[in-house]
Design goal:
- By secondary structure, the protein is an alpha+beta fold.
- It is built from 7 helices and 15 strands.
- The protein has helices spanning 107-115, 119-129, 139-146, 149-153, 156-161, 167-173, 232-243, and strands at residues 2-4, 9-12, 21-26, 32-37, 42-47, 53-58, 66-71, 77-82, 86-91, 180-183, 191-195, 201-206, 210-215, 222-223, 225-231.
- A hairpin with a 3-residue loop joins strand 12 (201-206) and strand 13 (210-215).
- The protein is globular and about 45 Å long.
């Protein structure tokens, strides 16, 4: 629920995830809200106060506990840390709904675009194979085994059809993956990741008392490079021993 603290009233409700929300973060301007559920596989970004979903990212296929969501100073990048050893960096622009950018066509033009993808030849191959069982397989199983599904997925048909399908289906076909990432030495530890506002560097602090500093290529992305690693607990222990 989006609540206006000045007017003391609720102004919007965000249907963020099916499972309970486990982590929230706003950008510095208060115009974006990033959310993660306790499943931790999908990260979503909503506009404020309009509560419109403007971006969605796939963190991974397996569940994870999200520890922190952090925007950079310009709200172009979103850093996500979890109980895995990977910190993901997403570009907000990459996660925007591509269907909203291209106008919908009429059903006639859509039908003609499908016809131009050589679907007739594919249907012919499927029809001639569905009645020829092999190695004791059922006709339908043999058909699926022989069909070149890779060719279908990579064809123009899927790209055009995704524009007319529900968001949930098209998002499964066209997930927005990470722009960059960094690896921590350990997993299953709580961590918080932030980005410098003046240099292309990312800082991470972990619950076991370590500070890490990485460099990021803002043009190409990819894996970040570890620049510095310090143990904060050593200094605290030395100060404690000196004080006693």
């Amino acid at each position: 629920m989006v609540f206006d603290a000045n007017a003391c009233e609720a102004i919007n409700i965000i249907q963020a995830h099916k499972s309970p929300v486990s982590c929230l973060a706003m950008n510095r301007d208060g115009t974006m809200l990033a959310t993660a559920s306790d499943k931790g596989t999908v990260i979503r970004v909503f506009s404020l106060p309009g509560a419109q979903k403007i971006a969605q990212f796939r963190r991974g296929a397996y569940p994870a506990k999200i520890h922190s969501l952090t925007f950079n100073a310009t709200s172009t990048l979103l850093l996500v840390s979890s109980d895995t050893d990977t910190v993901h960096i997403f570009r907000v622009a990459d996660g925007r709904n591509k269907r909203a950018k291209s106008p919908l066509h009429t059903s006639d033009s859509f039908a003609s675009s499908i016809a131009s993808t050589d679907t007739d030849s594919f249907a012919t191959r499927m029809d001639t194979r569905q009645h020829r069982p092999t190695n004791g397989q059922a006709p339908f199983e043999g058909m699926l085994r022989r069909a070149s599904w890779k060719g279908i997925v990579n064809s123009k048909f899927v790209g055009k059809a995704a524009q007319f399908m529900p968001d949930k289906i098209s998002e499964m076909w066209e997930p927005s993956r990470e722009f960059a990432f960094l690896k921590l030495p350990k997993s299953n530890i709580q961590s918080v990741a932030v980005m410098s506002s003046s240099t292309p560097q990312i800082m991470v602090v972990t619950s076991d008392g370590y500070f890490y500093q990485y460099s990021i290529d803002l043009d190409k992305g990819g894996e970040c490079v570890l620049l510095k690693q310090d143990c904060l607990l050593d200094s605290a222990e030395e100060l404690g021993a000196y004080a006693s």
